Amino acid sequence: MIIRQDLCVGCGRCQPFCPVGAISFAGLKSTVDQVTCLECGTCLRVAICPVDAIEEHPQVYEFPRAMRKFFSDPTSTHEATGIQGRGTEESKTNDATGRVGPDEVGIAIEVGRPTLGMTLVDVQKISRALARNGITEIEACNPIHSMYANPQTGDLREDMLNERVLSAIIEIAVPFEKARLVLRTAKEVAKEVDGVFVLDIFSTLMPNLTIQPRILKLLEEEGLPWRPNAKINMGLGRATD
Ligand code: SF4
Ligand code: SF4
Predict the structure, then answer these.
(1) What one-character-per-residue DSSP string does the chain give?
(2) Class of 91-221 in CATH
């Protein structure tokens, strides 16, 4: 985001709306620190500026700065996937898409620093740890899939690494037998990531609409507390036999 210096009257009203404190006074006018700004769009969306001095950065839709917007502005549509909100529907549409089959376990690793942001270096720590354990394929419809430079090492494209984002999600679907390895890898790499680290486990339900007992047992054995969360898309589901 930028603030037009020829228009800004220095009222300071926009500053409290920035979640990462990127807007501050420079002399009598406000300015945006371009390194800190995540391009989340909040300062523009709140329409607080009395003189319309806040404008989108001229390169916000150009690579690599566009990565900031795709991962931080919930109203933006991720170019790689065509999906809003960090570029993924996560598990929420699995009953319609069948991305995770009955014999698989879906695992999403969410990382980020609410109000602070992070760089994609933290995402790479996770992709590298997964690759070291032989997990080199993440969901094709997850935006991070298109950011891999080398799936065998988990390296992401170098020119993206320093882009700051609010949060990101890595998603994987693995056979049940491999789920324990992914969970253990996630627990290990969580120690290296400086920020909020959330594991989502998703699966198809049993015919009686309960969670597969083997998945709950796995979480218990791995010492992972869990909280059930469900979303049912009425009428969208397709039978998986
Ligand atoms: S776009 Fe978001 S991060 Fe950037 S200055 Fe505005 S509120 Fe702050
Ligand atoms: S709200 Fe507008 S005029 Fe006031 S400090 Fe922010 S950019 Fe400047």
Answers:
(1) -EE-TTT-----TTGGG-TT--EEEETTEEEE-TTT-----HHHHTT--TT--EE--TTTTSTTTHHHHHHH-TTSBPTTT--BSTT--TTTTHHHH--S-TTEEEEEEEEE-TTT-EETHHHHHHHHHHHHTT-----TTSGGGGGEEETTTTEEPGGGTT-EESEEEEEEEEEHHHHHHHHHHHHHHHTT--SEEEEEEE-PPPTTS---HHHHHHHHHTT----------TTT-----
(2) alpha beta
Q: Taking the domains of the chain in order of start, what are their residue ranges?
A: 2-55, 91-221
Write down the pTM of the prediction: 0.80
**What's the CA-to-centroid distance between 230 and ligand 2, angstroms?**
42
- Pocket lining for ligand 2, CB < 6 angstroms: 3, 8-14, 30, 48-49, 51, 53-54
The tens digit of pLDDT for each residue in 43-60 reads 999 999 999 999 999 999
Fold agreement (2-55, 91-221): yes
CATH class of the structural domain 2-55 = alpha beta
